[in-house]
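[recover] target loaded
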């Protein structure tokens, strides 16, 4: 029978019955929020702990206070409890009620001690608990089971003590390695975007932000200041794809004797385009991985998930396996397979006719500098002429030409080096890089027109007209404002005007080794010329949307990585002084571009500041985790 004053357990909280009836009113004993609160409950929802009438005068606060005192001395009962456990096991180990077990171990089951007694048995390694509607029962664990539980409890208690000591060291930013490494790895995972929470950051009193984790990893010496977390944070792999493409299939190809030229930066290792003019046609040859990468194959899905090759100062993480470059990049072997765009141009340089052909070509590789020196040669002069004419054609169509400073960042760290060697070199505009740009645009325009004419579902790239200010200033200030007026590009399956390029329709098809949407375009073109089934519009849209989202993450990782290494470069060179160009003036602030770093900053506007004015600047504060650097004008 349940009396008023009986002690019960409700949702693992101690409570006292204060009113009996069809339902019972209980008063809670524990917790700052629950203490003395009451609740109406059904009998089936609680478990009777102690029904002795002497408990009727017991107050909830006494129940808790007595339990605390009881548990402080409970360890002194361990030997007695062990003897009782051995006795019960030898006697068949029948379940014993908590009151019986208490009288055997403690000599009584006093109501005022009942909550302490319950906690003792509940946490004891010697007894296994079973709570039923009839009460609380215990059987005895074997010696081996009890020993294993005690071992784990000791480890847990020790771990808790170690963690508390670590948190204290973390707050002071004075960790001890290697013993603290297992704790720091949790913070590292958070900083790298591999987890969404950090228990240790929170326990140490730091806000759970990427920047705080990054800063703490540097401040404690767990990371060097130059550790780059941004590719991981954006979910981008820093390793190239590993599944090698099959060797190119043996298939009928048009063999061309005219040498084509693959012209690129000196550091390029994956040439995927080459150009030539045979006296009648402009040829733009593109690498042909779509000959073996079929839609929805394992390699295709992997490339879609990457979206693009990641180019960061540490190196490239390729969309397609590095080992496949020899088979598919242009100019690495005597003969190269290509998917070629043969363009017939009219007297104004507009495309009259486009053919898409599978070819086998001979390629000569040149750097931009080498090609510039050959700009008047019989082989390259026609290409420069065609490019110049195409520029004029696009200008007439209101194309926008923006020339902003660019730099090439590289990072090298050899064995034994304490810090990486960071170099920042300006990308010098060349005639040949501008020429190649026009060749790629012609190929993209020709491919778009070919796909549209033949009803091929295709990834088209478009861009709305920019809102260009009428009072556009000259020089770098004008280029800066022009860039800000541009609208985002769109990729879809419906051709539309690309206002920025001055083209009625356009598609990107010249980088299938490093851009997934280009690979999809090649898959469609090859299927068409082979007479095979094409992907439908929905399938193309689904693929390019997934690839574009992944490529967008790669672009963000590249931008963040470039800024990271720029800040590290400035940290390595504390006496650095550079030239900035004022490109915008807002009240008493000046927006400054630093061409030799390709970096934008704000400074207090000097007296009489003018657009395009050059000023000497020095870095004032560098915050690598927050990716911030402030500059001041050098006196």
């Amino acid at each position: 029978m349940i009396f008023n004053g009986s002690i019960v357990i409700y949702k693992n909280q101690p409570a006292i019955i204060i009113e009996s009836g069809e339902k019972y009113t209980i008063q809670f004993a524990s917790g700052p929020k629950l203490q003395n609160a009451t609740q109406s409950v059904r009998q089936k929802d609680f478990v009777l702990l102690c029904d002795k009438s002497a408990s009727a005068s017991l107050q909830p606060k006494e129940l808790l206070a007595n339990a605390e005192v009881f548990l402080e001395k409970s360890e002194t009962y361990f030997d007695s409890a062990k003897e009782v456990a051995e006795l019960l096991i030898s006697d068949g180990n029948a379940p014993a009620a908590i009151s019986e077990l208490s009288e055997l171990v403690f000599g009584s089951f006093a109501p005022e001690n009942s909550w302490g007694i319950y906690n003792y048995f509940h946490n004891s390694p010697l007894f296994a608990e079973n709570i039923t509607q009839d009460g609380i029962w215990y059987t005895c664990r074997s010696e081996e089971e009890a020993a294993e539980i005690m071992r784990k409890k000791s480890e847990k208690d020790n771990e808790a003590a170690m963690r508390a000591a670590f948190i204290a060291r973390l707050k002071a930013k004075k960790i001890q390695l290697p013993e603290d490494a297992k704790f720091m790895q949790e913070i590292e995972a958070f900083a790298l975007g591999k987890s969404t929470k950090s228990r240790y950051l929170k326990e140490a009193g730091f806000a759970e932000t990427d920047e705080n984790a990054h800063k703490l990893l540097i401040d404690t010496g767990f990371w060097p200041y130059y550790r780059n977390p941004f590719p991981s944070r954006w979910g981008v792999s820093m390793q190239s794809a590993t599944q090698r493409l099959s060797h190119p299939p043996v298939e009928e190809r048009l063999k061309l004797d005219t040498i084509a030229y693959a012209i690129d930066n000196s550091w390029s290792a994956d040439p995927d385009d080459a150009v030539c003019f045979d006296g009648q046609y402009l040829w733009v040859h593109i690498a042909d991985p779509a000959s073996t990468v079929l839609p929805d194959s394992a390699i295709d899905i992997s490339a879609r998930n990457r979206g693009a090759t990641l180019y960061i100062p540490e190196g490239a993480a390729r969309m397609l396996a590095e080992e496949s470059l020899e088979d598919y990049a242009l100019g690495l072997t005597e003969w190269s397979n290509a998917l070629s765009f043969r363009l017939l141009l009219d007297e104004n340089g507009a495309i009259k006719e486009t053919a898409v052909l599978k070819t086998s070509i001979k390629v000569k590789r040149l750097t931009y500098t080498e090609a510039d020196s050959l700009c008047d040669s019989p082989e390259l002069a026609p290409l420069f002429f065609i490019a110049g004419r195409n520029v004029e054609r696009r200008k007439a169509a209101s194309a926008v030409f923006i020339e902003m400073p660019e730099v090439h960042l590289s990072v090298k760290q050899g064995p034994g080096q304490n810090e990486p060697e960071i170099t920042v070199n300006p990308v010098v505009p060349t005639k040949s890089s501008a020429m190649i740009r026009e060749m790629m645009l012609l190929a993209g325009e020709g491919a778009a027109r070919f796909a549209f004419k033949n009803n091929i579902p295709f990834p088209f790239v478009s861009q709305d007209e920019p809102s260009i200010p009428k009072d556009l200033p000259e020089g770098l200030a004008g280029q800066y404002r022009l860039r800000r007026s541009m609208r985002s590009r769109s990729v879809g399956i419906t051709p539309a005007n690309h206002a920025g390029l001055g083209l009625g329709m356009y598609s990107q098809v010249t980088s299938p080794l490093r851009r997934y949407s280009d690979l999809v375009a090649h898959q469609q073109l090859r299927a068409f010329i082979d007479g095979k089934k094409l992907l439908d519009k929905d399938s193309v849209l689904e693929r390019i949307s997934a690839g574009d989202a992944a490529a967008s993450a790669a672009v963000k990782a590249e931008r963040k990585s470039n800024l990271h290494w720029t800040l590290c470069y400035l940290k390595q060179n504390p006496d650095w002084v550079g030239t900035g160009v004022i490109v915008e003036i807002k009240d008493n602030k000046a927006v400054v571009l630093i061409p030799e770093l390709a970096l934008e900053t704000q400074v207090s506007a000097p007296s009489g500041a003018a657009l395009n004015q050059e000023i000497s600047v020095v870095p004032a504060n560098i915050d690598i985790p927050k990716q911030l650097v402030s500059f001041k004008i050098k006196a």
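[recover] notes: The longest helix spans residues 537-572.
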